[in-house]
Amino acid sequence: MNKDLKNILFTQEEIQKKVKEIAAQLNEDYKGEEVIFVCVLKGSLPFYADLVREVKFPVTFDMVCVSSYGSNSESSGTLKIKLDSGVPFEGKNVLIVEDILDTGNTLSNLLAHFAKRNPKSIKLCCLLDKPSRRLRDIEADYKGFEIPDEFVVGYGLDYAEKYRELPYIGVLKPEVYQNN
Ligand code: PRP
User: Fold this and answer.
1) Nearest to 83 by CA among 63, 108, 106
2) What phi, psi does 42 have (nearest 5°)?
3) What is the pLDDT of residue 78?
4) Given this model, what pLDDT does residue 37 score?
5) What is the pLDDT of residue 91?
6) Residue 146: how many other CB atoms lie within 10 Å
7) Which residues of the chain have pLDDT under 70?
């Protein structure tokens, strides 16, 4: 385990099992359909890469890069779009793939932004859900794990751009972020 972590929340095996379960549900719901999978960079990258390889319907890759946090640990509530989606959504199924739904600020703003492009359907798939922190009325259509209000990193999730490469998800020791 990385020395900056207090404990591991989900092992690599547990995450991979959960990704397969989510994909099985998607395979039922989108059977015979084509879907644009939008990767919300950067945190969703590992989840996205694992998920697309488990689905059995045609997927178009797309990505956006947004941020609500900067280098702080608190959401600013304002969405910054650094890279916008390049694929036309008109009449298409769109699935937004996210690592974590926290305050809901990012996804609420992103859903409103995408809805203007008249997709056939738009759904949200989040690996982690932290409902205790929610500030907006939003729920994921597909979700992996519900987690307590702790600072989690790994499997794409960062603190100040670190720990994204860890294959598991763990809780960061408070002293790592409290002294910054
Ligand atoms: C994280 C995460 C979501 C957002 C969720 O992104 O990937 O996009 O925060 O938080 P919210 O529900 O409170 O809005 P972040 O801004 O940290 O960027 P990153 O994916 O590049 O790490």
Assistant:
1) 63
2) -95, -25
3) 73
4) 98
5) 96
6) 11
7) 68-77, 180
Beta bridge partners of 119: 90
> Dihedral sign, CA of 34, 17, 140, 160?
negative
| pLDDT for the residue numbered 66 | 87
How high is the pLDDT of residue 75? 58
pLDDT of residue 50: 98
Q: Active-site residue numbers?
A: 102
Using the structure block, give the residue that is written with the tokens 């702080």: 72
CA pair distance 135, 51, nearest whole angstrom: 27
Residue 104 alpha carbon, nearest atom of ligand 1: 12
The pTM score is: 0.93
Contact 154, 167 (CB under 8 A): yes
Ligand 1 centre and the CA of 11: distance in Å? 21
Q: 3.40.228.10, 3.30.2350.10, 3.40.50.2020, 3.65.10.10: which CATH number matches 5-177?
A: 3.40.50.2020
Find where tokens 């890279």 sit: 83
Residue 65 alpha carbon, nearest atom of ligand 1 = 21
Strand partners, 3: none
